Structure formats: structure tokens, C-alpha cells
UniProtKB/TrEMBL annotation:
The keyword Iron does not apply. This is glycerate dehydrogenase. It holds the Pfam family 2-Hacid_dh_C. GO terms for cellular component: peroxisome. Belongs to the D-isomer specific 2-hydroxyacid dehydrogenase family. One of its GO terms (biological process) is oxidative photosynthetic carbon pathway. InterPro entries: D-isomer_2-hydroxyacid_DH (IPR050223), D-isomer_2_OHA_DH_cat_dom (IPR006139), D-isomer_DH_CS1 (IPR029752), D-isomer_DH_NAD-bd (IPR006140), NAD(P)-bd_dom_sf (IPR036291). It is found in: Peroxisome. Its main location: other.
Length: 391
């Protein structure tokens, strides 16, 4: 028998029972659910990561849908419990869904939602922030200053890397990887090399394409050296050529330990590696060793292999900047993620179709208009045979 978990209840007489495993930012998501006849139960338990048993207790005997978090292990046990309770929808409040066993969800006919698009720029901005902080050694310099060690300007004090004219490498040039690439190319006039399984046509066009308004054409017209781009045919090409490399693929079997000991050794000695995707994309133990032996190599990490923990030795490395998985943490984005997650669950409960393009979710985010009668993004829509619509 599962232990009861503390909850806050909204609209107790609502017809549909929806559970959120965490309080989420903003109120729009709450209002949208209760205005649509949902009884909403928000888990207020103090511990950060809920266990499977906690979530089973939250689901209870009758539950129409759950909004959950990337820290939860959504597999056979939870989807069977949700299905037994009559549930048909689950949404992660995240774009990444490597914590979800989609095959198990398919088996129980549960739709799985995620929250693409709304976090693209925010996440890319954190990757850009980490790139700058690592290149200019901002965290080390801040610690030095606060420790009272600054006793005057010196020619060698905290010398870092100039970005302009250097090469930025992007691995996984999807929504976030492309947004980051644009920021670094446009903001710092860096040349671009990227690796992805697919061609990032819009990104390539942005950098140099033939249209009069592209960035490359603009630089040329202003008498500046145009930036260049290259699609690498192997990931190793990016590792060897780039001065800063930012990782933005999904986490799956093909990207687990994509950056390992051997690949680290192919990177330039003074390169910078940024990870705002998922921790296991890097072999973190190998990274710690690499940082120890290459003091001029720097990393900026938002995600970790055994989150919330770091591998032994990482915290002691001065050439590592570490932040606690905050890449999507801007107010607008987090409120938008909550809205998309709630609308995924609500849409399925109401029998709405699935929105035609998870890259164009803006209509759901307009606070002054009623959102489209659709689920913004359901990752297993095809497997479940759910109809899609532009409305
Ligand atoms: N740190 C954070 O807070 C944070 C925030 C948002 C997203 N993320 C992570 O970033 C990921 C990407 O998000 P997105 O919206 O850009 O997704 P996306 O699907 O638009 O982009 C992912 C890209 O990775 C590419 N890819 C897949 N397998 C690859 C491989 N083996 N080698 C190279 N490229 C490969 C895909 O082709 C795609 O272009 C998410 O899945 C999530 O895990 C993290
Ligand atoms: O996948 C995601 O969305 C992030 O990790 C949290 O924003």
C-alpha cells in the first residue's frame, strides 16, 4: 500500500482528475485546467525527486491525466498504474523525454506530451552564457576577487580566449543547437561547423545563403569578412576543428557517451566544451580526467551524468563551470512550459487533435487569447494513431 502524498486541490468538483507531480510556475496553466472542468491536484511534497511509489499514490484509483517532471522514471509501472486509473495522458514539463519509456506508454495507450519550442531561445542563451563565462574565465575571476586576492592589474591575469573569428562547433543542430549557432555567429562573428544526422537547411541559409538579408551577405556589404559555415560529415571533424563545441542532441542510445575519452583527446588543448543537453551525452569520468590533465581545456556544464550528483573530482576543477540544470529557467519559458504540458493533458482528455507542428507552438502561449483546441505536442501521436490538425 503506497503512502499518501501531500497535495493542494483546485476546483474539487471538476469532472476530470488531473495530477501535477510538482507546483509549476505561473497561474495560466491552473486556470486553463479548472476552466475546463478539471479537478487539479498538485503534489506539495517537500522532497525534490518523487519515487515511483509516491507517484502511484498520487495517481490513485481514478486519474485522467498527469503532468510530470524529467526527474521521474515514467515506465511500465507508472503507465500501467495510470491506465488502471483510467488515465489517457501524461505530459513531461520538458522537451526532452529520455525519462519516459514511450513503448510502455504505447502499450497502455497513453499519449505522451512534451514542451518544444518555448524553451529554445532560453536554453540557447544559457549555452551562450556558459560559452562566454568559460572563454573569459568569469567564474574563476569572480572567486578570486571575492577572496580578496586582487592586488592590481597584471598582463597575465585571467587571460582567456577571443571568440571573434574563431570556430564554433555545434553537435545536434536542431531547434536549440541552431538557435545557439545563430547567437554565436551573429553575436561574435564566429565561423560555424556543425554535425547532425540531418541537414540544418535554415541555419545554413541564415549564415551565408543567397538571400539579400542573410547575415553573411550583410557582413560582406558592410565591408567585413563574411562568416563561413560547414556541415561536417563526421562528429570528429567538429571536435578537431572547433574552438568552442556545444552539445545539443537528444539523449538516446546513439548519443550516450557521444563525447568519451577518445573523442576528448581529439579536441584542441584550449577548446571549450558546453553541455546543455543531457548529462550522459558526455562520459563525465573521462571528462574529469581530461580536465585534470589539460588545464587550458574548459567546460561549461548545465547537466550531469548522475544528476543531481557530479562525478568525483569535477567540483574541484577550476576549468569547469557547473550550474544546476537551469538552461530553460527564464520566467516566460517556465510558465510557457507549464502551459504546454497542461494543454497536452487537457487536449487528450477532451479528445482534441494534435497540433500540426511542435516547432510552432506560439498560438498556445498567447495569454490574451484562448489556446487552439489541440494538444500542442504529443510524441507518440503516430504510434497511437491520433489525428493531427492545423484547425
Ligand atoms: N539543459 C536543459 O535545461 C535543456 C533544455 C531544453 C532541452 N534540453 C535538451 O536538449 C535536447 C534538444 O532539444 P531540441 O528542442 O533542440 O530538440 P531537437 O529535436 O530540435 O534537436 C535535437 C537534434 O539532435 C539531433 N541528433 C539526434 N541524434 C543525433 C546524433 N546521434 N548525433 C548528432 N545529432 C543527433 C537531431 O537530428 C536533432 O536535430 C532535448 O532533447 C533535451 O534533452 C535541455
Ligand atoms: O528537456 C528539457 O526541457 C530540460 O531539460 C528542462 O527544461
Amino acid at each position: 500500500m503506497a503512502k499518501p502524498v501531500s497535495i493542494e486541490v483546485w476546483n474539487p468538483n471538476g469532472k476530470y482528475r488531473v495530477v501535477s507531480t510538482k507546483p509549476m510556475p505561473g497561474t495560466r496553466w491552473i486556470n486553463l485546467l479548472i476552466q475546463n472542468d478539471c479537478r487539479l491536484e498538485i503534489c506539495t511534497e517537500k522532497k525534490t525527486i518523487l519515487s515511483i511509489q509516491d507517484i502511484i499514490a498520487l495517481i490513485g484509483d481514478k486519474c485522467d491525466g498527469v503532468i510530470g517532471q524529467l526527474t521521474e522514471d515514467w515506465g511500465e509501472e507508472l503507465f500501467s498504474a495510470l491506465s488502471r486509473a483510467g488515465g489517457k495522458a501524461f505530459s513531461n514539463m520538458a522537451v526532452g523525454y529520455n525519462n519516459v519509456d514511450v513503448d510502455a506508454a504505447n502499450k497502455y495507450g497513453v499519449a505522451v506530451g512534451n514542451t518544444p519550442g518555448v524553451l529554445t531561445e532560453t536554453t540557447a542563451e544559457l549555452a551562450a552564457s556558459l560559452s562566454l563565462a568559460a572563454a573569459r574565465r568569469i567564474v574563476e575571476a569572480d572567486e578570486f576577487m571575492r577572496a580578496g586576492l586582487y592586488d592590481g592589474w597584471l598582463p597575465h591575469l585571467f587571460v582567456g580566449n577571443l571568440l571573434k573569428g574563431q570556430t564554433v562547433g555545434v553537435i545536434g543542430a536542431g531547434r536549440i543547437g541552431s538557435a545557439y549557432a545563430r547567437m554565436m555567429v551573429e553575436g561574435f562573428k564566429m565561423n560555424l561547423i556543425y554535425y547532425d544526422l540531418y541537414q540544418a537547411t535554415r541555419l545554413e541559409k541564415f549564415v551565408t545563403g543567397m538571400l539579400p538579408l542573410t547575415y553573411g551577405a550583410f557582413l560582406k556589404a558592410s565591408g567585413e569578412t563574411p562568416v563561413t559555415w560547414k556541415r561536417a560529415s563526421t562528429m570528429d571533424e567538429v571536435l578537431q576543428e572547433a574552438d568552442i563545441i556545444s552539445l545539443h542532441p537528444i539523449l538516446d542510445k546513439t548519443t550516450y557517451h557521444l563525447v568519451n575519452k577518445e573523442r576528448l583527446s581529439k579536441m584542441k588543448k584550449e577548446a571549450i566544451l558546453i553541455n546543455c543537453s543531457r548529462g550522459p551525452v558526455i562520459d563525465e569520468t573521462a571528462l574529469v580526467e581530461h580536465l585534470k590533465h589539460n588545464p587550458m581545456f574548459r567546460v561549461g556544464l548545465d547537466v550531469f551524468e548522475d544528476e543531481p550528483f557530479m562525478k568525483p573530482g569535477l567540483a574541484e576543477q577550476k576549468n569547469a563551470i557547473v550550474v544546476p540544470h537551469i538552461a530553460s529557467a527564464s520566467k516566460w519559458t517556465r510558465e510557457g512550459m507549464a502551459t504546454l504540458a497542461a494543454l497536452n493533458v487537457l487536449g487528450k482528455i477532451k479528445g482534441y487533435p494534435v497540433w500540426f507542428d511542435g516547432n510552432r507552438v506560439e498560438p498556445f502561449l498567447n495569454e490574451n487569447a484562448r489556446p487552439p483546441a489541440a494538444c500542442p505536442s504529443i510524441v507518440n501521436a503516430k504510434a497511437l494513431g491520433l489525428p493531427s490538425s492545423k484547425l
